[in-house]
Amino acid sequence: MSQQSLIDAAKAPSIAYNNKDWEAVKAAVTPGFLYDEVATQRKTQGADQVIAAWQGWGTAFPDSKATFRQRPRERRHRGVGSHMARHPQRTLADRNASNTSDGQANRDSRVPNP
């Protein structure tokens, strides 16, 4: 399956919601489809439960639409681990001293140097 096909498959349930086409939602999700609503802490699983939840939102907010801003990018870890792997000769103290938000060295005496 191409990457674009995967993206289209991931978007299909939301596009169906935008059209309030519940049959298309049912066709776009698998039996194990999990909808995790972070704001309300509600979790539903399967087409029937998801459709019931989304119909509730569609009734409360009939003009609601899902939007897609950009394709997800490859994740790149920018933490200490990846930095230290690229620059093994630098210590954590060197990193702390050179990487403050204002570009100034970290001179906070409360932060001990190992």
Folded structure, characterized:
By secondary structure, the chain is mainly α. The chain folds into two domains: 3-60, no CATH class; 75-105, no CATH class. 45% of the residues lie in helices and 7% in strands. The chain has five helices and two strands; from the N terminus they run ααββααα. Strands 1-2 form a two-stranded antiparallel ribbon. A hairpin with a 4-residue loop joins β1 and β2. The model is unreliable at 80-85 and 103-114 (pLDDT under 50).
- Percentage of β-strand residues: 5-15%
Count of helical stretches: 5
Main sheet makeup: 2 strands, antiparallel
Topology, number of strands: 2
Overall domain count: 2
Topology:
Layout: H1 3-18, H2 22-28, E1 34-37, E2 42-45, H3 47-60, H4 80-86, H5 92-98
Antiparallel strand pairs: 1-2
Give a short synopsis of this structure.
With 114 residues, the protein is mostly helical.
Which short descriptors sum up this protein?
114 residues, mainly alpha, 2 domains, two-stranded antiparallel sheet, 5 helices, disordered C terminus
